[in-house]
Specification:
about 550 residues; alpha+beta; Serine Threonine Protein Phosphatase 5, Tetratricopeptide repeat; Alpha-Beta Plaits; 8-stranded mixed beta sheet
């Protein structure tokens, strides 16, 4: 057990370093990605890499991947990205948004036929409901999933066998990672061996330096001995000279003594000169070695300082670029929340946007029933919170359909439209969104009734026809649409019923093969005369595929 703990402590920094390096590599690849598909996969991988470290980063990259998957028509990747966002919200203890994204993942997984992800999403939603003690909701979630699998003819044993196969695949992947860790450990041992070898070479250089210094010291001592010998020779010569002067010898003997003296002096000078030259050579060699060693140390320090400065500069530049890109994305996101993409692009490029006329646009109006009476029963804070929750839910519902654009909210009224992208679009997605809005309000109504609180009910009206769209204003500019189609859509909403979706005959003729509708007859509309209207009952089977 102790050995395992030591190994874990050794490899944990290596694993974290490799994970940071992997995230940085993914970010670099995302910056260089040229296609939407590459960006989708890279955003998903970044969201998955951040899931255990930074939930906000996971939410950010996961939503981008989900949005790109929707643009590319890839429900499988959209389901996986939505599931990651749900996990991140759950880690932040935001159960409400977690359930919303898990439900989105379940819906996308059904479109993609991803049974594993359906099971995971159902389990997550069921646990959240049980945690909230809403056992009825949990039962309904499990029952819907069971009915879905029963209709598809898929048994639980099939799912379990598939899970076991995936589990075996994960085990193989874990073994591969363990082999990679062993390889990195071997490389670390090799680096440690190289470091020991360098230390040994450094010790050898130090010993060589000491040996040279000892030789120089020995040469200096020999030079001192030669100087002493010369002094003794000089003293001996002086003594001989005195003896020669005192003795009355023949001139030949005196010349011999003088020649011997000169020979001794010459020999002493020669030895002194040789010793001095050897000492100078040794000193020069020592100076050269010390100069080379000092130059090597200085060069190493200089290269290290330049490397550290360069790496720090690159990090600062990369961080600044990341901040600039993030702020630019945030600005573009805020602009896209206000304007359609093509209008926003035109506004950024030219500083203004030209008005456009569309031949066939479907407009949706919603308005809460008895809003004034309900507002008297709530405090201002509670009223604003209820409106905010409802409109946020509406925003999320229409965001699931790329052909629907939110126009504005006026008091308790909510307005959106489809067909503003410049291409002809059927209003089927807008009607689906309207039915989801009513479903959401019905769920909230049941919960409010259970708690004994007032609740909102909405009338929704839809009409199709020509409109004019454009941007008005300079400060706090707004994107809006005008035309008789907008007025008729408002009249259709006014003559609707709470909890139902009321559509005009023009819209009905476009969707009658996709939805079952109930004809209401001709209804008197203010300032518009008699209008044929229909209540949408439900979507026809197989319509989701053909629409």
């Amino acid at each position: 057990m102790k050995k395992l703990l030591v190994l874990a402590c050794l490899f944990a920094p290596l694993f974290l370093f490799s994970q940071d390096a992997s995230i940085e590599d993914l970010k670099a690849e995302l910056e260089q990605a040229s296609t939407s598909e590459e960006k989708m996969y890279l955003n998903y991988e970044l969201a998955d890499a951040y899931i255990r470290r930074d939930a906000e980063q996971t939410i950010d990259y996961g939503k981008r991947a989900h949005s790109l998957a929707g643009d590319l028509g890839n429900p499988r990747m959209g389901a996986q990205a939505a599931f990651l966002v749900g996990r991140a919200y759950e880690r932040e203890r935001n159960e409400r948004n977690a359930d919303v994204w898990y439900r989105t993942a379940q819906a996308k997984a059904k479109q993609a036929g991803d049974l594993d992800l359906i099971v995971k999403s159902v389990q997550k939603r069921g646990r959240l409901a049980e945690k909230d003690r809403d056992y009825r909701e949990a039962y309904q979630i499990y029952e819907d999933a069971f009915n879905y699998f029963s209709q598809k003819g898929t048994s639980i044993s099939d799912l379990e066998s598939k899970f076991q196969r995936q589990k075996a695949t994960l085990a193989q992947e874990r073994e591969r990672l363990q082999r990679e860790i062993d390889r990195l450990s071997n490389e670390r041992d090799e680096l440690s061996t190289d470091r020991d070898r360098l230390q040994q070479q450094q010790q050898q250089l130090v010993q060589e330096k000491r040996r040279v210094e000892e030789e120089v010291s020995e040469k200096e001592e020999r030079l001192a001995d030669v100087s002493q010998a010369k002094a003794r020779a000089d003293s001996l010569a002086e003594t001989k000279e005195k003896e020669v002067k005192q003795l009355s010898r023949q001139k030949l003997e005196q010349e011999a003594i003088l020649q011997a003296r000169e020979a001794s002096l010459a020999k002493a000078k020669l030895e002194a000169e040789q010793s001095r030259n050897a000492a100078e050579r040794n000193k020069a060699q020592r100076d050269q070695l010390m100069l080379l060693a000092a130059s090597g140390v200085l060069l190493t320090l200089l290269l290290l300082i330049l490397f550290l400065i360069s790496r720090k500069s690159r990090r600062r530049l990369k961080e600044k670029n990341r901040i600039i890109e993030k702020e630019q994305e945030r600005s573009n996101g805020l602009l896209l929340n206000i304007l359609p993409k093509q209008i926003a692009d035109e506004l950024k490029e030219y500083g203004k946007a030209k008005p456009r006329k569309y031949k066939e646009v479907t407009v949706l109006f919603s308005d809460f029933k008895n809003f004034s009476q309900i507002s008297e029963q709530l405090t201002p804070e509670e009223l604003v919170e209820e409106l905010d929750n409802s409109f946020k839910a509406f925003d999320f519902i229409i965001s699931q359909h790329d052909d629907i654009e939110k126009i504005k909210t006026i008091g308790d009224a909510y307005m959106c439209a489809s067909g503003l992208s410049g291409r002809k679009a059927m209003p089927t997605n807008l009607i689906r969104a309207a039915m989801e809005m009513q479903q959401y309000l019905e769920e909230q109504k049941q919960e409010k009734i259970r708690l004994g609180k007032p609740y909102f009910e909405a009338r929704i009206g839809i009409h199709t026809g020509p409109v004019v769209a454009g941007v008005v204003g300079v400060n706090k500019f707004a994107y809006d649409i005008w035309g008789d189609t907008v007025n008729i859509a408002s009249r259709v909403e006014t003559n609707g019923q709470a909890g139902r979706v009321n559509i005009s005959e023009a819209t009905y003729n476009l969707v009658k093969y996709n939805f079952e509708c109930e004809y209401r007859g001709k209804v008197q509309a203010k300032n518009k005369g008699l209008i044929d209207m229909y209540f949408v009952k439900k979507e026809r089977k197989g319509a989701a595929v053909t629409a």
